[in-house]
Amino acid sequence: xxxxxxxxxxxxxxxxxxxxxxxxxxxxxxxxxxxxxxxxxxxxxxxxxxxxxxxxxxxxxxxxxxxxxxxxxxxxxxxxxxxxxxxxxxxxxxxxxxxxxxxxxxxxxxxxxxxxxxxxxxxxxxxxxxxxxxxxxxxxxxxxxxxxxxxxxxxxxxxxxxxxxxxxxxxxxxxxxxxxxxxxxxxxxxxxxxxxxxxxxxxxxxxxxxxxxxxxxxxxxxxxxxxxxxxxxxxxxxxxxxxxxxxxxxxxxxxxxx
Amino acid sequence: xxxxxxxxxxxxxxxxxxxxxxxxxxxxxxxxxxxxxxxxxxxxxxxxxxxxxxxxxxxxxxxxxxxxxxxxxxxxxxxxxxxxxxxxxxxxxxxxxxxxxxxxxxxxxxxxxxxxxxxxxxxxxxxxxxxxxxxxxxxxxxxxxxxxxxxxxxxxxxxxxxxxxxxxxxxxxxxxxxxxxxxxxxxxxxxxxxxxxxxxxxxxxxxxxxxxxxxxxxxxxxxxxxxxxxxxxxxxxxxxxxxxxxxxxxxxxxxxxx
Lengths: 258, 258
Description:
The structure is a homodimer. Helices cover 33% and strands 21% of the residues of chain A. Chain A contains eleven helices and ten strands. The model of chain A has no long low-confidence stretch (mean pLDDT 93).
């Protein structure tokens, strides 16, 4: 049975979800691109609608027989006109946002805390890094970019399906925290000499201003990536990766087998 | 003496340099933003023209007395209309490209080799990473994005002034190379167990396709960043940073004091 085509009203709704206010109102978001859509369908997100080319629907028949949402067929040209990202002429999906439920971090696990990360590429890349290093929880300040922003989803390369992001005011959360709170600064302890221990929070600051003063007062361990050359700083996502790689690979504490 | 204002013809020339073909024809490029412009003026690039607000010119008077190029004054509004990047209403400059001269890598130094890095944000971030880890030379395939692309310059945060990029066909260069050629793959030796030695080349592959077959045949050491979670891969710039951080900090070989 051939799926029905996409109506103009539906196309308009999909395009509207590029804007944060419409996503918030609908509690839905758009996932673009074959890889991301397949990751979405394999995840615990609820997908309401799949729009894809006949080719995609044919090639992924086995995955799609388990999909209970609505499926519509569209031409590559129409698909390309629906998204705002780089060329996507294969598939997109509309899924439901998850509730912003408070998270609990067990004392032997790691979580990232993002203090006002504004660039969607950075947040997406940080989701991908967290997923690579098996850090499944991110706590983000209310001003951190929306995790459902299309550029965040794109840069996360599917990792948005496996990493929880909880938005909350950081100081109250940090003041109630009993595990170590590490913060990345330019003048802290060399990360390669730090005993990270079995778990805690790693705070990453804003791209331009670093960690804000109210959050700084809750940092229990100031850490630094040693600099060898002359750049003033590292990109926020890059710093996150170097810290995660170090804490996961530094024997013996903090170590976990890959 | 107040600098003269910017003419319409000059504004048109500046805007034209956003396109690679015009940069190539003029052998000039545009640097936008106060920080990048100040880094440019402090570098060994030849700057032909500075366009800035009266405020910028006043605040940087001491730096500018040594500047021998042409200086023009423009309003914040006009400056904002000249660039294609995020808000820049302070300063921009036109500088001369450097010749694409062959580079020599001493056997006890490191260089990065980029096999077709296409995303300007990635190249800029890699320049910043190289600068942080005191790697001053990058060798790039001819299809790697232009180092003078405005988004590359922006993402490099001034590091474009301190890192040389030499564009050349990679296989002949690698076949003539006598130092180790490390390549980042998903199935190589754990970077935390590699003896990097005192120097060599680190090859980073294309964002989507990794290291191309003709380049792969010249890799002498396949290395891997250990994965702990489920992301399929890391972003190219992120992988570069983790590798550079490891080779600079792994005692005893490859170590260099920060």
